[in-house]
Amino acid sequence: MAYETVLYDVADRVCTITLNRPEKLNAWTRQMHFDLKDAMHKAGADSEVRAIILTGAGRGFCAGADMGGLQAIGSGASADRSTRVQEGLPGGSTLPEFRMNYSYFPAIPKFIIAAINGPAAGLGMVIPLYADLRFAGESAVFTTAFAQRGLIAEHGISWLLPRLVGLPAALDLLCSARKFRAPEALAMGLVNRVIPDDKLLAEARAYATLLANTVSPRSVAVMKRQLWEAEFQTLAEATLQANHEMELSFQTSDFKEGVAHYLEKRAARFTGR
Fold this sequence. Notes:
Shape: globular
Radius of gyration: 19 Å
Distance between the termini: 28 Å
Number of strands: 9
Order of helices and strands: EEHEHEEHEEHHEHEHHHH
């Protein structure tokens, strides 16, 4: 299907989803919320997709909520703050924490890479925090923005941000709403790489292609689920889950292929089964 506010492309088993309101720095709207969620679930359910890249069209990743929408809320319109649980996907996490209105990325059973180009503000900064990896272009600039709008730490960022950068840094970024650039984001652990702007998508695609061609998609889906769910587990619970998943892995075609391609010294041909 065609989307109003995102672009959807699949090539070489990598799905690229692009926020597509470049004239507004991809400012977030209700329609973009629905389009992105549908596109993510579509890619997550597609057996031909092994990895997902999320980026923004034009000069920015996402400048946050569209100001027209915020102005309407300030004038008395209701905001969509639904806490209803969303449907999950086979292989993804079934925890209700990862099936909320914005927290569904961890329940998508494919590896998600956020390629952050230009401004990422407010909700536009929250969304990539739910990705599994974040690459930032050299011109990327970040701000939580909420305190400057009279708002609070929205959409789970109070849970996400301290886990990435620590409590003192999270308090700094949220309460000051100051702008900070890609090198500082890298130093504090918010992003995994800083890349020249003109090479950002190429490097994201190279990493996604590595996943698509060299590792078991089933292994990636299970490990992604293990790691996100471990945030709510004790060591004993995580170990018991791992022991169970290991027994299941021994019964799969991907396990047999993982051993065979190593012994035969050839490229792997994983099927995800």
